Amino acid sequence: SATAYQKVKAGDYDAFICKVVPAADVSVTQTSSGNPVQLGTNVTFSVMATNNGELAATSVVLTNVLSPNVAYVSAASTLGSCTRTGSFVICNLGSLPVGSGAVVTVTTTAITPGLTTNQARVGASQLDGNTNNNLSTLVVTLGSIVSVAATTSNAFEQATVGGQVRFSRTGITQNELTVNYTVSGTAVSGS
Questions:
Q1: Alpha-carbon distance 146 to 66, whole Å?
Q2: Three-state SS for 54?
Q3: Do the Cβ atoms of 39 and 110 come closer than 8 Å?
Q4: CB 60 within 8 A of CB 119
Q5: Is the dihedral of CA 86, 91, 67, 75 positive or negative?
Q6: Is the pLDDT of residue 104 over 90?
Q7: What is the pLDDT of residue 174?
């Protein structure tokens, strides 16, 4: 950001001298403990807040928004402390000197199948030199690991064109899985 400038006459051209003030630049990145994740198991999000700027960042706050597809288990930080309110995990990290960072570990349990989005945002009390790196979104698939067993005698011999086949699945949940399929080709006798 510019704090002062001075117009200078240099030949036939005007030039401006600008004094640039150093700034903090907090950023956030994240990883997950797995992808995909089975239902009923924990998925841990490791969220890293870093100060890439030229000045220390003070009053740094990292906010992690939990998806409704996961249940909160715990949150811990290598710096400061974290609290949870509803789907928000708010970590007051305090000050981050230049080049330093803090890791927030948010542990959840996968409860609903589908895609879950974990979103983390970081900010500080200073002007941020680059706000493009203050938000991180990570998508994890929940419940996609399924054991399916079928034999030709109980499934495909009874299949019809454009129909459905029902399988039983084992694992965390014991419910029915419907598979849509397309039949193509020519039937061969005895196959």
A1: 24
A2: coil
A3: yes
A4: no
A5: negative
A6: yes
A7: 47
- d(CA 107, CA 71) in angstroms, rounded, equals 9
Could you tell me which of 144, 124, 145, 146 has the C-alpha nearest to residue 133?
124
Distance separating the N- and C-terminal Cα atoms of the chain: 75
Strand-pairing partners, residue 74, are 107
Structure tokens at 156: 């495909």
Which among 188, 131, 187, 125 has a CA at the least distance from the CA of 161? 187
What DSSP line would sit under 133-181, residue for residue? GSEEEEEEEES---EE---TTTTGGG--TT-EEEEEEESS---EEEEE-
Please give the pLDDT value at position 21.
Answer: 77
* Least confident interval from 12-16, 31-35, 178-182: 178-182
**105-124 as b/e: b if 16+ CB within 10 A:** ebbbebeebeebebbbbbbb
Based on its alpha-carbon atoms, the radius of gyration of the chain, rounded to whole angstroms, reads 27
**From 61-65, 100-104, 122-126, 150-154, the region with the lowest mean pLDDT:** 150-154
Matching residue, tokens 């009390």: 125
Bridge partners, 27 (sequence order): 50
- Residue of 173 and 98 predicted with greater confidence: 98
Quote the CA–CA distance of 191 and 185 in Å, as a whole number: 13
Q: What tokens were used for 153? A: 């005698």
